[in-house]
Amino acid sequence: MALINKIRERSGVAVLIIAVSLILFIVGGDILGAQSMFGGNSQAVGEIAGETIDYKDFQLKLDQARQAFEAQSGRAASEAEQQSLREQVWNQYIVDFAYKKEYDELGLKVSNDELVDMVQGNNVSPAIQQSFTNPQTGVFDKTSVISYLKNLKNLPPEQQQAWQNFEKSLAQDRVRQKYENLFRVGTYVTRAEAEKEYQAQTTKATLKYLFVPFYSVTDTTVKVTDTQLEDYLAKHKDEYKGFDSRTIQYVTFPIVPTKDDSTELYNRIKELARGLATAPNDSTYARINSDVPTKLYWSLSEMTDQLKGAVKSFIPGSVNGPYREGNTYFIYKYGGTKLDTAYTAKASHILIRAQGTSDSAKAEARTKAADLLKQLQGGANFEQLAAANSADQSSAQRGGDLGYFRQGAMVKPFSDAVFSMSGTGLIGRLVETDFGFHIIKVTEPKTNVLYKIAAIGKTMTPSQTTRDAIYAKADQFSIESKSKAAFDESVKKEKSLIVQTANRIPESATNINTMQNAREIVRWAFNDDTNENQASPVFETDEQYVVAILTGKSDKDSPTINDFRDELTLKVRNQIKAEQITKKLSGIQAPTLEAIAQKYGAGALVENANDISLATGFLTSAGLDPIALGKGFGLKPGKKTKVFTGENGVFIMEQVSSTPAPAIGDYSMYKANLQSKSFQASFLVNEAVRENAKVVDNRAKFF
């Protein structure tokens, strides 16, 4: 009775809760959508220059881009292409929000007259020229642009929209060029800078140095603690920028056919062979039952090596096979032959390239080719000469073999030479094409015979029963792996499993190591509900099931030593080694570098760098070490430095001699060289604009 009274007392509250729940269920998408009543924006794809990009807006633009792509290509966009379209749409937002503010502040724009000039005037854009170049002549035709524009109103709406988008992109490219040019022409190189560049390139010195590389001290003798790593990271925050990433370990369960699947396929092929033998229309029967598309009439150039060898023994009306090609089994019904209008032949060649060369180089190439032809006519081995001399590397690896090809498939001079020969053997003259000079050997005579073959190809694939059994095994593994320890224990039980590690996966990743189409695994790893040392459900990708366990996280706002452990350990270990080496070297008193090295013992090298410059100097064992070079060039002849640490080890430098750069009055060449480096402006401007726009990219949470 007391319980019933309590229920009655709270019935009003219960009714209210139910009513609110129903309202939220019905209209929750509207009031809790992009901007919920509780604050926050769960539907924000990102933020650029203070502008929030809503998911619905982004998806609308993405759909428009995808539809335009598919209308132009005539097919559905692949996953990789959709990823590229998402990147294009995102970059357009950056232009609209980040760059446009910069343009507006500077008053940069493209006028209507300027746009007309770019499309059909005296300064036509390269993009327009490329789009309206005659494919037969390779010449741009401005009249075709004008004709297209006059007819634009008669085209379908989607084509009109595509042109408008194209013109918009032309204007955006032009205004961006103007913006970047402001930085490029604003880059000025002073005479002092040019003179410094000249001195660095022209002043020569001969240096002698003692070098003790870090690797001379065994890593295992140097202990690095987490405290040392944390201290180093704290002092070098600017060098180690954090970013959101995940580290996982995973095992795979390949979905492969079993013995039962093989038996089932064999029985199916026997059944199809009987059907193919008695089918009133064998080509239709083959087309309906084949897993792979095949044709009815085959030339030798279209056959696999196996079929070329077998077809010679086929009897008209017979069903032959099965023949295995990779993971597909073929049966063939042979229907005899007929003559084709085009011939097929097989040949090998040696190419001596002369494409785009000068007259003298072309003559040299002809002479070399003629010499090889003479050697072959004297009995030399064609395959060996092709492998050693042919510029066509793909065929050279096969001794010059080009395989079978149809008449007209090769460039005309080559094709004419091969198909004008009635038999086999070496063609007794050089054949010149746009690629160079060819020495040709016909290895199979021309033929225009076509073989009528109705083919059925059946690919061995795992049955649903097999897939279910493998999935059940993967699922059981996932269920038992409740922790990292349990995951490791399950791997020990199943000897066939190999644990793989993927370190620091970015949130936008679509692949994991060599595993393709792994987007769902990445999204699981970044899900807020996924904890470290938690195993995943079973994922399917690339004909395998995958079970992963999250072993690490990194946060862009709070980088830790674990995010950069390997890099930090190397730096700190080398610091400790440098201290040990420096202490030992500093305690040695000796007059020459050789004497110091002898007292130091194993690991100390004494080397010379003769007549090198500061700009391009390279030390034999130490490699490119700016610190060491700077110290060496800063000495006077006969003087030595104290012990110091370079990039890859510890040094004592001694300058043997130096040759000052001759005095010159004109540094324009060096000034121009430095000025040319302003090509980096485009990249640097882009980075600065993005940084200034404080871009927040949340696309990985939606796609």
TrEMBL record:
<dbReference type="InterPro" id="IPR023058">
    <property type="entry name" value="PPIase_PpiC_CS"/>
</dbReference>
<dbReference type="InterPro" id="IPR052029">
    <property type="entry name" value="PpiD_chaperone"/>
</dbReference>
<comment type="similarity">
    <text>Belongs to the PpiD chaperone family.</text>
</comment>
<dbReference type="Pfam" id="PF13623">
    <property type="entry name" value="SurA_N_2"/>
</dbReference>
<dbReference type="GO" id="GO:0005886">
    <property type="term" value="C:plasma membrane"/>
</dbReference>
<keyword id="KW-0697">Rotamase</keyword>
<keyword id="KW-1133">Transmembrane helix</keyword>
<keyword id="KW-0413">Isomerase</keyword>
<dbReference type="InterPro" id="IPR000297">
    <property type="entry name" value="PPIase_PpiC"/>
</dbReference>
<protein>
    <recommendedName>
        <fullName>Periplasmic chaperone PpiD</fullName>
    </recommendedName>
</protein>
<dbReference type="InterPro" id="IPR046357">
    <property type="entry name" value="PPIase_dom_sf"/>
</dbReference>
<keyword id="KW-0997">Cell inner membrane</keyword>
<keyword id="KW-0812">Transmembrane</keyword>
<feature type="transmembrane region" description="Helical">
    <location>
        <begin position="12"/>
        <end position="33"/>
    </location>
</feature>
<keyword id="KW-0472">Membrane</keyword>
<keyword id="KW-1003">Cell membrane</keyword>
<dbReference type="Pfam" id="PF13616">
    <property type="entry name" value="Rotamase_3"/>
</dbReference>
<keyword id="KW-0143">Chaperone</keyword>
<feature type="domain" description="PpiC">
    <location>
        <begin position="342"/>
        <end position="444"/>
    </location>
</feature>
<dbReference type="GO" id="GO:0003755">
    <property type="term" value="F:peptidyl-prolyl cis-trans isomerase activity"/>
</dbReference>
<dbReference type="InterPro" id="IPR027304">
    <property type="entry name" value="Trigger_fact/SurA_dom_sf"/>
</dbReference>
